[in-house]
Design brief:
Elements lengths: L5 E6 L5 H11 L1 E8 L2 E9 H7 L10 E5 L2 E12 L6 E8 L6 E10 L5 H4 L4 E4 L3 E6 L8 E4 L8 E3 L10 E2 H4 L7 E6 L5 H7 L5
Parallel strand pairs: 1-4, 2-6, 7-10
Antiparallel strand pairs: 1-3, 2-3, 4-5, 5-6, 7-9, 8-13, 9-12, 11-13
């Protein structure tokens, strides 16, 4: 993967809302927690400017991160970010430690490529509609993709793509499909333009 993310962290002893407010206001740091890999959860603090910069990159949310805690490197993934409801800055973060031998569950974004070359759009005047922007997968940390590509180039009007149409890298599984065919949900479709003959014929109802 092309992106590398490193966050510097420190252990924190003072807990509670008041301590968190002081941490953010006086030290410009963000309270967080690091858990998993059969270790005790560790309360940490991060530099607000570092996490603000990192979260601007989409890859941050589906990437193995390096957290340097008291001089020791920890590999982790971000599991939850709590943001200020009005200003949008990160108020708290949850990170899960990575165990290289166990599969992790992650939400990864879908990248729809070749939409401008899509046959149903370019040749048939259709319109692409997205039903999903991300999907939950499971894999070993070494196999974690930053995103999954969905190629729209050959898709015709009236066609709906489903989760099973996504080409997966080796070692990656989609959680919904593990549950069975009934969970093969739509991810995108190419619809006929409004006012087209096909759409009008569908909408027409017999007069009484």
């Amino acid at each position: 993967m092309s992106n590398e993310f490193t966050l510097n962290a420190e252990s924190r002893e003072a807990l509670g809302k008041g301590a968190s407010r002081r941490l953010r206001r006086l030290e410009n740091k963000v309270p967080a927690i690091l858990y998993g890999a059969d270790q005790e959860p560790t309360n940490i603090s991060l530099y607000a400017n570092e996490i603000a910069k990192a979260t601007e990159n989409e890859a941050f949310y589906s990437h193995i991160l390096t957290i340097i805690l008291n001089g020791k490197e920890e590999k982790a993934v971000v599991k939850d970010l709590q943001r200020h409801p009005a200003k949008g800055f990160v108020m708290h973060a949850d990170f899960q430690r990575i165990d290289e031998t166990h599969k992790i569950h992650m939400q990864v974004p879908l990248h729809f490529i070749n939409e401008e070359k899509c046959h149903g759009v370019k040749m048939q005047g259709g319109v692409i509609s997205h039903q999903m922007a991300e999907v939950e997968i499971q894999c070993l940390a070494k196999d974690l993709p930053e995103y999954l590509e969905v190629d729209m180039v050959d898709i015709n009007v009236g066609t709906t793509l489903h989760l099973s149409d996504i080409k997966l890298p080796e070692g990656v599984e989609i959680m919904a499909l593990i549950q069975g065919e009934d969970h093969d949900l739509p991810i995108a479709s190419v619809n006929a333009p409004k006012g087209s003959a096909s759409e009008e014929s569908e909408e027409e109802a017999p007069e009484e």
